[in-house]
Amino acid sequence: MNKQFLKDAFFWGFMVWLIGYGLGIVFFTIVPHDLIGWFVMPIGIIVSLWVLIKQIKSRDIKHYLGIAIVWTLIAVICDYFFLVRAFTTTSVYYKPDVYLYYALTFLLPILVGFRKSRTIE
Question: How are the residues of the chain apportioned to helix, strand and coil, as percentages rounded to the nearest 5?
Fold first, then answer.
C-alpha cells in the first residue's frame, strides 16, 4: 500500500461517508425518517463522483478496486457503529436505500476507474 492509495481509500472514503452522515443528520430534522436515505443518496453520488473524478488521479483499475473495497467497508462499519449501534436502529436502518447505497459505494469507484483506465490523454 502506498501513501496515495491510503489517502484515496481511507481519507476520501471517510470524508465521503462523513458528508453523508452529516446530511443524514440535517435531513433527520426536515424529511420523514423513512426517506432520509433517498434524499442523501443523490448528493452522495455527486460528492463521490467529484472525488473519484477530480481528486483521485490514478488510471490503474486495481487502485479503484481497492478504493471500492475500502470505501464499502468504511460505509458498512461506520454505519453500524455510528448509526445502528448508537441509535439501536437495527430493524429499521437496513432497507432498500441502504443496500443500494452500499452497492453504489462499491460500483462507482470501479466504473470511474474503468473509464479512466480506458481514457488516453
Answer: 85, 0, 15
Give the type of residue at 55: Q
pLDDT of residue 33: 86
Q: Are 52 and 63 in contact (CB under 8 A)?
A: no
pLDDT, tens digit (0-9, with 9 covering 90-100), for 46-78: 999 999 999 999 999 999 999 999 999 999 999
Long-range own/partner contacts, residues 75-80 (CB < 8 A, 24 or more apart): 75/13, 75/17, 75/101, 75/102, 75/105, 76/102, 78/14, 78/17, 78/21, 79/17
pLDDT at 89: 61
Residue 73 in contact with residue 99, Cβ under 8 Å?
Answer: no
Cell of 96: 432498500
